[in-house]
Write a structure and sequence with these properties.
Radius of gyration: 24 Å
Order of helices and strands: HEEHHHHHHHHHHHHH
CATH superfamily of the domain at 65-240: MetI-like
Strand content: under 5%
Number of strands: 2
CATH architecture of the domain at 65-240: Orthogonal Bundle
Structural class: mainly alpha
Helix content: over 70%
Amino acid sequence: MATQHSRSAARFMMAPAVILLLGWMLIPLTMTLYFSFKRYLPLRGGDLGWVGFENYARFVSSSAFWPSIQTTLVIVGGVLLITIILGVLLSILLDQPMWGQGIVRILVIAPFFVMPTVSALVWKNMFMDPVNGLLAHLWKAFGAQPVEWLSDASLMSIIIIVSWQWLPFATLILLTAIQSLDSEQLEAAEMDGAPPLSRFAFIILPHLSRAITIVVLIQTIFLLAIFAEIFVTTGGSFGTRTLTYLIFQRVLESQNVGLGSAGGVYAIILANIVAIFLMRIVGKNLDT
């Protein structure tokens, strides 16, 4: 049992890391709150004084605010739906004995280590280009007109690109969960004559519920801040401007740090609302 002296020594040794971590989080948050109450235009007069809640009112009353919220939630929901469904199917497939199983698993997981900017450029130029893209040649081979993906189906294109990058993460978590499943349960159900769909619905899927919850929570945190894929492909056009991209436009393109900081506070509030909602709805699986 740890003594009072050893606990005090542990706290003392952990204190520098804790202080550094708190400073890493609290200093940017404090500066964001500070500038959100000021009219600060770096290239057009600098600090023009306090304006109170004017930046918050201007940001939320902007015609682009609510569409950006809707676009953000649509992208998050679409990516979660695709990655969870395909992740479950891929994890079950990868759990089956096959030749070169280790190599196949590495190839499936590899896209997760590709930088978002690189993956977006690959999809934009090699797959979705309406003239020289792989999908364009495939469409032409079947006698169909190539699709202008990034303009005619821009939101779906973003969802596909982001899903391709996050699918390996979901697959890895779900594969680990499947490998921890007691094979005797499946064997007993098979001996009792249960069909494959019943074994999946009543044994495998309930066992994956905790892993699916973890995937949903972690991916949602990161997907709410999606930016690079949109910046590289559509530039926020064609209905793909998320809340994060709107903040970028207000800060860097309009050079209005105060207005962008107010948007950052709204982004923090949105992230907390979504996190609380998810914890109440699906987070209960972590306690079972």
